[in-house]
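Assemble and predict.
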Amino acid sequence: QKEVEQNSGPLSVPEGAIASLNCTYSDRGSQSFFWYRQYSGKSPELIMSIYSNGDKEDGRFTAQLNKASQYVSLLIRDSQPSDSATYLCAVIGNFGNEKLTFGTGTRLTIIP
Amino acid sequence: DGGITQSPKYLFRKEGQNVTLSCEQNLNHDAMYWYRQDPGQGLRLIYYSQIVNDFQKGDIAEGYSVSREKKESFPLTVTSAQKNPTAFYLCASSPGQLLTEAFFGQGTRLTVV
C-alpha cells in the first residue's frame, strides 16, 4: 500500500465549477497535511496546509481533513483556467516517521 | 531576497561521472529535503536533514549522497552508482522540526548523455 494515494486523473472541470481533489494516507498517526500546486516544468508551490479535523478555507480553496477515515481533500471553487495544474497531496507521518511524503499528484484541467 | 536557491538549473552529465547539485537557503530553516521527480510522476524522497550534521535516508537513497555541514546548505551528489539519474531534482526546506510547511527551490533538471 502506498503511503499517500491520489487519483492521477486527468480531472476535467468546466470553468466556474467546483473541482474536488482527494487523497488518502496509510499512517494513521500522521501529523500534518499539505496541498501543493505544480505547473508543468516548475517546482511545487504550497497552497494549503491543515493539521486538525474539519475544514480550512483560504479564498477559493478549502481543505478538508478526516483523520478517522485517513482522508484529505481539496475543493477549488469558481475554477479558473489558471487552476489547470497538477495538485500534489503531502503528508508528514507520526513521530519516528516524520518525513514529508508526496502522492503522485492529480492532473486538473479547467475547460473554458 | 529570502528563498531557496538551486543551481544549476540544467545539468548534463556523462555516464560514469559523479555530479553535485547545490541547494542553499537563507530562510534560517532547520529542515531540508531532496526529492526526485520523473516525468508524470510524484516526488520521491532521496534524503532529508532535520539539523546540521545529521541526515536520514529517504525512500530512494541508493546512488546518492548528501552532507549538512552548514544550516543553509544541503548539497546532493549523484554518484555513478545511480543507474538512472536523468530526472528533475527538487530541494525543499521547512522552518521547524519537520512538522511545518516545506518550500521548494526552482529545481535542477539533470540529463545523462
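The longest strand of chain B covers residues 43-51.
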